[in-house]
Amino acid sequence: MTGWLDYNTWWVLFGTSLLGAACGAVGVFLLLRRRALVADVISHATLPGIAVAFWLLWASGRSGKSLPWLLLGAACSAGLGALGLLLLRNRTRLREDAAMGVVLTGWFAIGTVLLRWVQGLGGDAAGLEGFLFGKTATLVAEDGRWIALASLLSVGLVLLLKRPIGLICFDPAFATSLGWSVWWLDFGLMMAAISLIIVGLQAVGAILMVALLVIPPAAARFWTTRLHRLLLIAMGLGGFSGMVGAWISDQGDKIPSGPAIVLTGVAFFLISLLFGTHDGLARRWIRHRALEWMVRRDHFLRDFYEYLESRGQAPTIVGHARSAEVPGAAALQWTRGMANHRTLFSRLHREGLVIGEPHGSLFLTAKGIQQAIIAVRKHRFVEHYLHLLLDLPTEAIDRGADATEHWLDETMLARLESQLGVSTMEVPESLHPIVPEDESGTPSSQPAGKLGGRDG
Amino acid sequence: MAVEVDQEVSRLDPSIPLQIRDLTVAYQQRPVLWEVNLDLPAGSLVGLVGPNGAGKSTLLRAILGLVEPISGEVRVFGKTLAEQRGRVAYVPQRESVDWDFPTSVLDLVLMGTYGKLGWFRRPGATERARAMEALRAVEMDAYADRQIGRLSGGQQQRAFLARALVQQSDLYLMDEPFAAVDAATEMAIMQLLRSLRSQGKTVVVVHHDLHTAPDYFDRVVLLNMRVVAYGKVEQVFQKENLQKTYGGRLTVLDELSEAMRRRGVGP
């Protein structure tokens, strides 16, 4: 751990960012194939192999630091772990999650016992701790090059087989019907994952390795619904996490590189969760608020329209720039006891739907009339539909229409129009009486069906 | 023997889209289909009808090699399936896939071109044009760019059918294409199937609704762990056959399966 542009550091950072990017791409498919936890089992299952390989090296009088042999041991014991998982799943009644729990913990326990034991042997065994949590400080340029090579091969394999592997994730039965071997494609995907896990052991560690395969793809899902973009985003996030995490760990000896890399990834995940443009929480909240407003606005405009209608002044688009006047006190009734009716009125003003004062006289603008007619039409179409086709009694339908009408889109509206046999822009009659309200704004009488019916 | 020679001849008949001989299928040694023998002629709409658990989907899956039969043979236009993959299109049950998968309707339909393209070649302009044409045929071209998870059930089924159309096959195997779709989609699908038939294609459809089956299909296979009856719909759709299919439970076969399950054979 010396300078910023140190030759070794440069290679290690290069290696870990490639590793992160490759894990991002392979992880996308692991997640889509629901194999993410299998990768976790495999990475935990590498530990006994590392310990045994170290012991064999020590016993034959060689240096325990010989990385290729250690990684070969890791690969062998990972393979045994995967085989054990397959046998438990296919030959017993155990379900996959139980089988994974058994193999993961079993192999990991054996691994930690063996590691503790070989550390007692002395020699270079102290460095073995790095395989648990990752230690980039022990990495040299040579390791960085190996990581880079394995990453390139793995990512190359899955990107080359992007379509077939994608198909077995989505619809394996269809893939088989094309004569494609789901088994071989799965095998290719798992091989890519295992190679990444093996070369990533030193940098990230057996315990956290799966995070690099899971977190970037999971974060990417908040941004897009297309496979190629998912791959690009996951590779970008993974690569960046690998680089930043390894660099942070390289700056201070106290932080193991595994947690540093994973925490960087988690930070990206949180950002994606909050601000992801496809399904982030912020976007959900905004969309929810917009829908809420739409419902409130439509209810208000409908009340306005029906108030005028009950006085024989139903506004039409033709011939009316703006509608008849409504005393503000009556309009206040239509805010349905909303505490912040001021914001309702000011927003209706801002959107150019009404003019006037809530405490004086209120008018619908031309735009307001148009919107009101749309809202009324939607409501009454649904009412008529429920009444005529579902044969529901008129008292029951107002509420049902309230709950559903806002989600009518253009095509559904057109279908309703043709089924009910009404022409475009015609406002059908209400099925229940619209009760005239007196000038003070209090309803003279209220039919039971309308009371509190507009909370949708 | 004369009979065997006769079968040998019909086995290699390249004009018959689908021939099944002595097909028996078991899931982990529990037989679910016994001794199926069928010949489906070209240009026909064939309904596979039977109660739940009758083995309808299993029969399709066995034809496609998705489950390995314990015995029997399947011939597609006189050859094994492996030699004729390009002439068979499969429409799995809609619920069998994850509709949250990150892909668009157009990309889903393009999967129908994968069989001819192989693992490595990517779909080009020709394939895209064909996929759009198939989407128009199912009236889904307006939804080409939409994420598949945002489609309604009926639209998802139409997209699945478009994928099968793009395969330009001669034999179509469809697993419950009418399950949980709206009436409009059901009509549209039926129209499509009839136009396939008029082009000389053979369509096999797993179907649940006994009321519509006589209208929809020329031929019907009544299935309940074995073929109860097979033939022209007006001949097969009779009270006695239907009772045999739906009414009397196959108590001995059921008990046999149950006994095997108790002894720990199978899942």
State the helix count of chain B. 12
Find the structural class of chain A using helix and strand composition: mainly alpha
> What name is given to the CATH topology of the largest domain in chain A?
ABC transporter involved in vitamin B12 uptake, BtuC
Please report the distance between the alpha carbons of the first and last residues of chain B: 41 Å
* Series of secondary-structure elements of chain A, N-terminal to C-terminal: HHHHHHHHHHHHHHEHHEEHHH
| Radius of gyration of chain A (Å) | 33 Å
Largest β sheet strand count, sense and barrel closure of chain A: 3 strands, antiparallel
Q: In the CATH scheme, what's the topology name of chain B?
A: Rossmann fold
Low confidence ranges of chain A:
437-456
The CATH C-level class name of the largest domain in chain A: Mainly Alpha
Tally of DSSP β-strands of chain A: 3
Largest interface between protein chains, with number of residues from each side? A-B, 23 and 27 residues
- Assign the CATH class of chain B: Alpha Beta
Average pLDDT metric of chain B:
86
Count of distinct strands of chain B:
9
How many domains would you count in the coordinates of chain A?
2
| CATH architectural designation of the largest domain in chain A | Orthogonal Bundle
**Gross geometry of chain A:** elongated
Summarize the helix and strand pattern of chain B as letters.
Answer: HEEEHEHEHHHHEHEHEEHHH
Largest sheet of chain B: 6 strands, mixed
Describe the structure concisely for a colleague.
The complex is a heterodimer of chains A (about 450) and B (about 270). With about 450 residues, chain A is mostly helical. Helix content of chain A is about 70%, strand content about 0%.
List the SSEs and their pairings.
The complex is a heterodimer of chains A (456) and B (267).
Chain A: H1 7-32, H2 36-44, H3 46-59, H4 67-91, H5 96-119, H6 130-133, H7 141-160, H8 162-170, H9 172-177, H10 182-204, H11 209-220, H12 227-251, H13 257-275, H14 281-310, E1 326-327, H15 328-333, H16 341-350, E2 354-356, E3 361-364, H17 366-389, H18 394-404, H19 410-420
Antiparallel strand pairs in A: 1-3, 2-3
Chain B: H1 2-11, E1 18-27, E2 30-40, E3 45-49, H2 56-63, E4 71-76, H3 81-84, E5 88-91, H4 105-110, H5 114-117, H6 125-137, H7 153-166, E6 171-174, H8 183-198, E7 202-207, H9 213-216, E8 219-223, E9 227-232, H10 233-236, H11 239-247, H12 251-262
